Amino acid sequence: MSFLFGGGRPQLSSAEKIAAAETEVEMISDMFNRLSQSCTKKCIPPEYREPDLNKGESVCLDRCVSKFFEVNLKVSEKMQGEAAQRGGAGGGMSGFGM
Amino acid sequence: MDGLNASEQREFQGRMEKKQMKEFMTMYSNLVQRCFDDCVNDFTTKSLHAKEEGCVMKCVDKYLKGSERLGQRFQEQNAAMMQSGQLPGR
Amino acid sequence: MAEKPPGQDPAHPAPASLPKPEGNPALRMMGLPRFKFKLPSRNWLIFWAITGSFTSTLLYDRHHKKRAQRKWCNFVSHLAEEPVPPAVMPRKITIFLAAPPGDSLRPARDYFHEYIKPILVAGGMDWEVIEGRKEGDVRAGLAEKIRKLRKRSGEKPAAESAEEPEEKENSDDLRYEVRKRSGVTEWDGVQGDLVLGRHTWKEYIRGLHEGWLGPLVPPRPAEALETETQPLPTSTSDTRPVDSPPKTPSTSEAASDSPPQTEPPTPDPPPPKPAKATPKPPYITPEDYPTCPTAPSLPTSLNPSLPLHLPHVLGFLNTPTRIYRFLTRRHLADSTGRSVAALVLASHSRPYIQSAEFASAIDPDFVPSDTNNAPEGAVTQTGEAWEQEAILKEEEREWSKTAWAPNKEDEKTKERPWLERMVIDSRIGQKMSQFELESGAAEEAVKVDKEKRMQDPSLVDRIRRWTGFEKGEKKGWDMGLEGWDDE
């Protein structure tokens, strides 16, 4: 999870660093929560006949995750394009998408 | 966490533990809500029927297994994404 | 009845002027106008007859197509309900799709989506697709996949590996690593390959040979220079899509100095093409098969395969054939469904056999139009032939003429696996097998389908049952009558 720390950053105080790392973890866990909510909703039918995942559900979950990531990527690309068009700097948008 | 020194690491760990606890609670309440919604639809009695109880048990099992699976896939995807340099939000 | 018109002589009634009572008296009493039934004009009749018969044939066909597909989906759907531990990947098969001769990839893809995918989904399968836009793409893709498999199973490339540029890990490798670390296991069981169409099949066979018999690293450029007198950049095969555009000038030089070279080379490693998306040149050619050592990690049996017919005709003159096929897709859906179900169930597979009857099935006077490529007769002239060679042979008759055209001058060395005769090495040929349904599966499928439809009838099913076309569950009155009969 070191990708927020790109090269050539100005020196930060330790509080700031921790805050940044925390935001990052938060973003990822938030993304996972959302993903798990929508994928279980879409893939696991609300009739619980057996306690195990069956094959169909497993395949569905696998594909769901990869699609979720793809959508994530597409949306962030699109938004970045917009941001770049609008302001050029895009500094305000850097943390968005996760 | 390459950018952090030892003391920062410790501080960070502490926060993460708190966060994890919170995450766990959120997941728990989500799970309760989901299984309740899916399994319990009959309010003519006060306690759960055997059928509803069975449904809830299966629901919890299934949900946990599903989360496990999702977690694995998520890890893979995340690793792939970071490696390819196409980071979300960058 | 008819009133007399006023002011007429009662002695001389005028019967001719009276309106003749016609039509249905009841309707007339109700004051409804007289309906006159007559046929529409001849032209309208012709129009309606043609339109109506076409439409009804189409609707009938589509309805039965849907039923056939649902039947095979139902037949395999129990597999999707099997429990699976969370750390196990589902069964993954490989689909080989290639653009049919003279056409784009689209028909093959459409066919896959329309007829194959529903059954795979119903059976809870995962799959990966190896697609080929050009002749040779599928071969290259499969060979690459096998080589990766060999490397993963611990095989080290031979001495010349030092020259091999550092291979860049792609996301697929990375995923594999992550999976290995977190203890996720692949499905243990047969995986299976699905090959669509004769042309893909031919490439598939080549790819198998190249992957398992060929070296792990591309042939040395020195060798290539000897045979080709053309520069073959080392890195071509590893990072082709990225670095091919800058290479264009050098290869065009090569093309310009190729005419002086005397003999047109046999299809030994064709040089890298300047075009942007050419497949990797093959590491070995069919002539090399007998001399190639087997890969140490070659399994005792290869993945069973399922060659599937890809119906595809082009051309205006073939319009009647195309219309006929358009209106009889139900048969296609049924036969495809049966084959795919065999692959999904994977309960039975049999090895391909080698016998003389296949040799006669393969057209004896088949001569590839490009006479430069003549690997035929290299291995199999013993009167016996492999079954693989004869599979889907009839499709070749439908290939468009452009598929048979010889290579153009500027691309003499382009590989033509579709036109050349298949060469099968017995080390590979023996290890291949084909998916098959057990006998009686068709009846079983009908039964399963009927049960499923009983539980969850569609509107048409309800109508059929209600009108008595199909026997549903016994109705109360049926029972009563039976009881009465017995007494």
Report on the architecture of this protein.
Chain C: Residues 161-170 have a biased composition (Acidic residues). Chain C: It is a single-pass membrane protein. The complex is a heterotrimer of chains A (98), B (90) and C (487). With 98 residues, chain A is mainly alpha-helical. Chain A has one domain (14-86): Orthogonal Bundle (Helix Hairpins), CATH 1.10.287. Chain A has 2 helices and no strands. Chain A has helices at 14-43, 55-86. Chain A starts with 13 loop residues before the first helix and ends in a 12-residue tail after the last helix. Residues 1-8 and 90-98 of chain A have low confidence and may be disordered. By secondary structure, chain B is mostly helical. Chain B has one domain (6-84): Helix Hairpins (Orthogonal Bundle), CATH 1.10.287.810. Chain B has helices spanning 6-39, 50-84. Chain B starts with 5 loop residues before the first helix and ends in a 6-residue tail after the last helix. The model of chain B has no long low-confidence stretch (mean pLDDT 83). In chain C, the strands form 3 sheets. In chain C, strands 2-1-3-4 form a 4-stranded parallel beta sheet, sandwiched between helices. Chain C has a domain at 49-158 and 185-245 and 264-364 and 387-441. Chain C has helices spanning 25-29, 42-80, 106-122, 137-152, 171-181, 198-213, 221-228, 240-257, 319-327, 329-345, 356-361, 387-390, 401-404, 426-429, 441-455, 459-467, 476-486, and strands spanning 92-98, 126-132, 193-196, 305-308, 349-351, 354-355, 385-386, 433-435. Chain C is built from 17 helices and 8 strands. Chains in contact: A-B, A-C, B-C. Chains A and B meet through helix 1 and helix 2 of A and helix 1 and helix 2 of B.
